[in-house]
Write a structure and sequence with these properties.
Elements lengths: L14 H11 L10 E4 L5 E4 L15 E3 L2 E3 L9 E7 L2 E9 L3 E6 L2 E5 L11 E3 L2 E3 L5
Antiparallel strand pairs: 1-2, 3-10, 4-9, 5-6, 6-7, 7-8
Length: 138
C-alpha cells in the first residue's frame, strides 16, 4: 500500500512559491525560507534544502516501513542527515552522510553500519531504498 509520494511538482519554480507550497502542505517544517525548486531526475522537480532545514510527515503505526528517495549532495561531509525516522520525538533510525561519499545508519544513538569506500559521486543523483522493521523485541 502506498502511503505517501511527493514530487514537489506543486512547488513552482521560485524560492517564494516553493516556500509557500511547503507551508501549505506540511504543518511541521523548517524549510520555507531555504526551499529552492530544482530540476530533478528525468526532468521532474526536486526540493533543495540547506543545513538543518527539514520537513516532516506523520504516518500511522506500521511494523514494516519501506522508503525510497533520491538525493544529491554537492559535497559529502560528516553528519548531514538524509533521513530520520522518529517515534514520539525519539530517533529510531537515521541515515547520514560521511566524508568521501560514505553513509552511516544509526538506531537511536547506536551506529549499526557505516559504508567504507562506497565513494558516492558528488553532484550526482543516488537512490536509497531502506526497509525498517519496527517491533518492541527487535
Amino acid at each position: 500500500m502506498l502511503l505517501w509520494m511527493e514530487g514537489f511538482e506543486g512547488g513552482g519554480t521560485t524560492k517564494t512559491t516553493m516556500g509557500a507550497y511547503l507551508v501549505r502542505k506540511y504543518a511541521d517544517h523548517s524549510v520555507a525560507s531555504w526551499a529552492f525548486s530544482r530540476t530533478g531526475r528525468y526532468g521532474g522537480k526536486a526540493l533543495e534544502i540547506l543545513g538543518t532545514e527539514y520537513f516532516k510527515i506523520s504516518i500511522d503505526n506500521k511494523q514494516t516501513f519501506i522508503i525510497g528517495f533520491a538525493f544529491k549532495c554537492e559535497e559529502y561531509v560528516n553528519n548531514e542527515d538524509l533521513l530520520i525516522l522518529q517515534d514520539s520525538g525519539t530517533t529510531q533510525m537515521r541515515i547520514s552522510t560521511r566524508a568521501g561519499g560514505d553513509l552511516r545508519v544509526e538506531r537511536g544513538t547506536t551506529t549499526l553500519d557505516t559504508t567504507i569506500g562506497l565513494g558516492l559521486a558528488a553532484d550526482a543523483s543516488h537512490y536509497i531504498d531502506p526497509e525498517d522493521n519496527i517491533a518492541a523485541a527487535v
